[in-house]
Amino acid sequence: MSRRNTVLRSLHDVGLAAWFGGSLMGAVGLNGAARDEGGTWATTARIAGSGWAKWSPVNAAAVATHLFGSGGLLAANAPRVAVQQGVAASTLAKTVLTGAALGATAYSRVLGKKMEWAASSDPQDAEKAAKHPVDTDKAQRHLACMQWAVPALTGGLIILNALHGEQQRPSEQLHGVWDRARALAPHMSLPGHLTH
Questions:
Q1: In a domain, 107, yes or no
Q2: Are 143 and 108 in contact (CB under 8 A)?
Q3: Model pTM?
Q4: 61, 148, 190 from 181: Cα distances, Å
Q5: Which structural domain, as residue segments, surrounds residue 122?
Q6: Which CA distances in Å does 184 have to 77, 84, 174, 191, 194?
Q7: Does the residue 194 lie in any domain?
Q8: Tell me, what DSSP letter sits at residue 192?
Q9: Mean pLDDT by 10 residues, the chain (196 residues)
Q10: Most buried residue, 43, 47, 75, 152, by most Cβ within 10 Å?
Q11: Considering the domain boundaries, does residue 63 fall inside one?
Q12: Which domain of life is it from (predicted)?
C-alpha cells in the first residue's frame, strides 16, 4: 500500500489540471471576449471557434494524459479499492464523473465545430455546414450550459481526487480495512475497536 506512483500521479494531476483550467479559462476568458468583441452571433462564433480550435489538441492531450494516469493508478491501487471501506464508492463516483466530463467535452466540441462552420465564410466550411446543419439558437443555448458543465465536472474530479488523497493516509487505510472486515463479517466477534 505504500509503493510510490509518482509518474502516474503526475500524469493524472497535470492532465486534470489542464482539462479543468482550460475549460474554465475558455468559459470565462475566451467565450467572454468573443461575446464582447463579436457584435453578431456569426463573428462571436468565429472568434470563439478559432480559439477553441487552437486549444482542442492541447485539451485532447490533457484528457489522454489524465486518463492514462487514472488507469495506471486504478491498477496500482486495485487491492486498496477491494479491501478499504469507502474507496470503491469514491472510485466509482470518480469514474462516473470522468465519463460525464468526457461526454460534455465531446458534445461541446461537436456543437462548437458546427457553429464554427455555420458562421464561416469559407466555401469548404459552408459545404460542411450544409452536410451537418445546426439550429444555431439551440446550439448556442446548449453551448452556454456546456461551457460551465465541463469545469464543474472536472472540478468535481479534483475534489474526489482530494478525497482519495485523504483515504491514502495510513490511519485511514487501517480504519477502512477494519470497517470493511467488520462489514463482511458482522456476526463474528472481533476483539477491540480501532479509532481514527
A1: yes
A2: yes
A3: 0.79
A4: 41, 41, 9
A5: 6-179
A6: 20, 12, 15, 15, 16
A7: no
A8: S
A9: 81 97 95 91 88 94 97 91 84 96 95 84 78 84 93 96 80 55 58 50
A10: 47
A11: yes
A12: Bacteria
